[in-house]
Specification:
Layout: E1 7-12, E2 15-20, H1 31-45, E3 52-57, E4 62-64, H2 72-75, H3 79-97, E5 103-107, E6 110-112, H4 114-120, E7 124-128, E8 132-134, H5 146-156, H6 158-167, E9 171-172, H7 173-179, E10 184-186, H8 191-204, H9 207-226, H10 232-236, H11 245-255
Parallel strand pairs: 2-3, 3-5, 4-6, 5-7, 6-8, 7-10
Antiparallel strand pairs: 1-2, 8-9
């Protein structure tokens, strides 16, 4: 996959790491980076050999402080320009939310504004205890658009999402955990070890099963939110795993009391 300095994609076996790589600006997201985040996750979505993706910021000071405010004068100075910019933001959020692979956000330092929006649509969020969170757009006279807000509401619910937006505070990891923003909080010295352990556990599972579970979870939430019922075809998909080589291997390994070796088929 093509690499770029501002958004780097590193692939190590079945694990891909997407890195916001602008540490001199605390990984603040500029227009180019929003577009590249979307391209990175769309590209990884097409790669069947990937079993897990880690999303993070370069260095240990921040995933990111949000969008680059200095671009507002040139890229977001009126509603038309802001709408064009917003399209790139929406595509980035959608690319993460719709990616078939499990995604783990590794959070250290600031995870503010747009960075939190992206982390919110990852599947798991593991943070160090010294991390800081918030979406203080009300202090800038900015609105978080429908599509950006959807992931936050899905994660923490309407009231908590509105609390975060109304108050515009920056808060710590314990409060973020209590609000439901995070999956785990560990000490800074244990963060990479914990992320590695979680990723290894994910990769040890059958990749097709992980993808099905993610698809089913998204489908269930969509149905609950939109009043949809599952079709017969969708219901039958819950049993397709029994026709896979991975099921045969997993069952055989269990009987033989050994670790399974899944092929993704």
């Amino acid at each position: 996959m093509k690499r770029n300095d501002l958004v780097r994609v590193d692939i190590n076996g079945p694990v891909a790491t997407v890195v916001l790589n602008r540490p001199q600006k605390l990984n603040a997201l500029n227009k180019q980076m929003w577009s590249m985040v979307g391209d990175a996750f769309n590209g990884l979505n097409e790669m069947d050999n990937i079993r897990c993706i880690v999303f993070r910021g370069a260095g240990d000071k921040a995933v990111g402080p949000g969008a680059d405010i200095k671009e507002f004068e040139t890229e977001r100075y009126n509603s038309k320009k802001a709408s064009e910019y917003g399209e790139m933001m929406h595509k980035a959020v959608l690319a993460i939310a719709s990616c078939k692979h499990p995604i783990v956000a590794r959070i250290r330092g600031l995870c503010i504004g747009g960075a939190l929006e992206l982390a919110a649509v990852c599947d798991l969020r593991i943070a160090s205890s010294d991390s800081r969170f918030g979406i203080p757009v009300s202090r800038l006279g900015l609105v978080m658009s429908h599509f950006e807000m959807a992931g936050l509401i899905e994660l923490v619910g309407k009231s908590t999402a509105l609390e975060i937006l109304f108050e515009g505070r920056v808060f710590g990891s314990d409060e973020a955990m209590n609000k439901g923003l995070l999956t785990k909080v560990v000490g800074p010295e244990k963060l990479d070890e914990e992320v590695k352990k979680v990723v290894e556990n994910i990769c040890a599972g059958a990749p097709l099963v992980n993808r099905w579970h993610k698809k089913f979870a998204n489908r269930i939430l969509e149905g609950l939110n939109q009043g949809k019922t599952l079709t017969e075809q969708e219901l039958r998909e819950g049993f397709d795993c029994f026709d896979t080589d991975d099921f045969k291997e997993g069952y055989k390994a269990f009987i033989e009391k050994r670790e399974p070796s899944f092929s993704g088929n």
